[in-house]
Amino acid sequence: MSEEVVQWLTEIRALREELAQCKDERDAAYKSAAHWRELYAKEAQQRRVEARLAQENIVQLEAELRQLKNTDALLPADRDGARRLAAIESEVAALDTVQQLQQKLAEVLQSRDRAIASLRKEQEHHQRTRSDLTAALGDTVDELHRVKSAKNYEE
Prior knowledge:
Elements: H1 2-70, H2 74-94, H3 98-154
């Protein structure tokens, strides 16, 4: 019977060691889960802050847009436009013949065509600049994520 007792005691020791190992693994898993929860919470907090800042920026821009639409800042431009219109009307009234009117119309159309060409060129430059800046911003964000990932990996 003592042999059976020794065998039982050996098995109990083995089970205790296995139980201790399982507890250590469980504790390590809890610690890892807590670490990942902490990282997730930090990331979620950062996203909430970014979303709040973006929302505040949207509200601010909408307020600026409403202000620009309702402001008297546009009135001086309207006054200048009215003055220019009056000057144009007096210049057209000064034209005596159909030939003078046709000549003036040709000048205005040429001027308009030059302005349209200039506007299109400016729009192309704007689009190119916008694309370049968007690409640069994307590269910067990617680099920032890479640096943050490397920093988090090191921790």
